[in-house]
Amino acid sequence: MARLADPPVSRGDVQDAGPARQPKAPLRFRLREPITGLLFVLPMLALFVVFRFVPAFGAVGMSFTDYKISGEYDFIGVDNYARLLDDPVFAVSLKATLVYAAVYVPFTVLVALGTALLLNSVVWGRGLFRGMLFMPYVTSFVFAGLIWRFVYEIDGLINGLLGRADLGPVDFLGDTSLVLPSLAAVSAWKGFGYSMLILVAGLKAIPRSYLEAALVDGANAWQRFRLVVLPLLRPALFFVLVIETIGAFQVFDTIYVMTGGGPVRASYTLVYALFDQGFRFFDFGYAATIGVVLFAIVLIVSLIQRLFLDREPT
Amino acid sequence: MTVQTAGVRQRHRLATMSLGGLLAVICLITVTPFALMIVVALSPAGSLTLPYALPDRLTWENITEIFSAAGFTRWTINSFVYSVLSMLIILLTASMAGYAFAKMRFPGRDALMWSFLATLMVPFQAMLIPYFVLVSRLGGLNTFWGLIVPTLANSQAVFLMRQFIRDLPDELFDAARIDGASEWRVYWRIVLPLTKPILATLAVFVFLWHWNDFLWPLVVAQSRDMQTLTVGLATLRSENVPLAQLMAAAAISVVPCLVVFALVQRFIVNSIAITGLK
What we know:
The complex is a heterodimer.
Chain A: H1 2-5, H2 11-16, H3 27-30, H4 32-62, H5 79-86, H6 88-121, H7 126-134, H8 141-152, H9 157-164, H10 179-204, H11 208-216, H12 221-249, H13 253-258, H14 270-279, H15 284-311
Chain B: H1 2-41, H2 61-68, H3 72-103, H4 109-118, H5 128-137, H6 144-148, H7 155-166, H8 170-178, H9 183-194, H10 196-212, H11 215-220, H12 229-238, H13 243-275
Helix pairs in contact in B: 1-13, 2-13, 3-7, 3-10, 3-12, 10-13, 12-13
Transmembrane segments (chain B): 21-42, 80-102, 114-132, 144-165, 186-209, 243-264
Organism (chain B): Jiangella anatolica
Membrane topology (chain B): Multi-pass membrane protein
């Protein structure tokens, strides 16, 4: 009788413990659940093994070879990594990516936070405003790049407006110091809606009574934001920060259709370098090495996130 | 006292109105590129248009012309095949795996689930080269299966399904099993109908991911016949197609996304807030 009360997970141990008084269920019944379970997982598992696990380890493996497009390769140890350290083009791409991220992340998060706060405070037309702000998010980066090329061009929208005021023209995509901020603005336009929605959800979760209490205590709008809203919004804000940082290091599509990495490699980012090495120079081993660096960066960002979230008192 | 309250209230109203005004301006800036695109796409060839002047008449000819341009119709079909097939297969395999992970016991279940999730940490671009080598070795370059199959291993979909199914009461499944239903029947008759809301959300996201995807189609389907719409747009750009036609092509490419968005906006908004799907 005691057997019946046992939690199902420990069934195995109990059976080993001694001669069973109840007859064992036939083997095919006991195996039925594990086998059906595995069968249900099998299609996805096969996909993961072939198209996730193998390529992930393959990327690391290839970074130690001089893999050619023909499929021939030799193991060359850490030569690819040594080459990265000496490669001025790689240094340029790393710097471009960091500058891009340094512009993109604060800008996007601030816009997302600002619009989230505004959406939270307006009393009418909230759904309409939210829809308009979120609309670019459902489009593709290629689409955003094409439209914004026209906005930025010498005979494009902004210079057309500047020209009316007898200003400009400004060569947004042709100037080496303007190109990365201009590209960052395009990605921000396309992507901020997502972070905005996360932050709106975060704001909604803040109890009204906290804000009312602060109001009664005579806190002004800025104090209410800094002392009540901001601390409570921190987890959401941090999530958004990490998501956008990881996204910034993966920028490619807009650059491909807007600048091609130029002018003079001013927008030649990490993924663009990977693509170039792989599909223009067909140096697969070296391109895979750049991929491993990208993975390492994303991993570090995620680990920092974990570290900070563990410290979170909540 | 009452005067003061009235003053405070008025100031409050003024602040709210100015915040609303600011938000309206930001919204306007956000949608300006769309409006610009539509006006240019509908401008007759050779006539003066934005940013210099509004066109004196509007025409559909850019749209009809782009559809007769080499490849455009084919790219649109390719994008639909890529997005819809991927969506259907992911919905099926992810819900099956999610059901097993949520409600069945088998050795290594949790380890398997976490190993699926761990792959989220590896950015797709970092695996681009091995992906390409693998698919080209298997003979998948410039084929639909080469385009679709590698994108099906989707841990976000599996995890979402698992979380949702886990919260369904066990009694439902047990009752069906006692009545003699096979696991497959339980899945088909109970799990799928009960997970309709989450399946719909997932369908929207998977469709958008694939429709907007660029880097993978760019490298795996390079022949003009097999390009998807995003890659085709980039091709048109590099071929210096007239701006009005390029804008027409871009406008057409975004229609399915906007239709999906308009239909299920509230849905998308809620699921981002709840699940963090991206």
